[in-house]
Design a protein that fits this description.
Length: 184
Amino acid sequence: MPDAQSRRMPPSRVPPIDCVATPDGGLIAMTAFPGRRPLPEPGAATADLRALRDWGATRLVTLAKRAEWARLGAPDLPAMAESAGLLWRHAPIPDMETPDAATLAAWSRLAPDLLSTLAAGGRVAMHCAAGLGRTGTMAATLLVQSGMEPSLAVQSVRAARPGAIETDAQLRFVLQTAPLLARL
């Protein structure tokens, strides 16, 4: 396992990419929606996706719902991610909420690939809108599915990305539901 539970990418124009290590040495990046800026900035989404690729991510998991994409700066996110060399996956969760049954079904299909990537020391990036609530919840869920205790997963994610796992419901999801997903 790397020396620190979390690492921060060097400063740049792209939003921060905060990382947390899995028990077997993979890294999960938590970040804001590609292209999200205080003011519209042409090419921002492409720059953010390239930064994730350059960091070493091979997978990008979008947790924001499709209806949010245009407002956040990348209405064509799947094609943009693929063009940047990232294998794109979608597990939509409403803002400030936890996964519903449909999202859990999608997660059960994509998690094995993410877990095997991480187990091989690979890097997976995930984002929602701000990269806090939904992203923190599912990053912690991946840590639990990788073998980490739920409370340590929450602590690790929050140490790497302060403000992550924003609601009590999201915290309960990680502490109570994520361990059940780890057994599947």
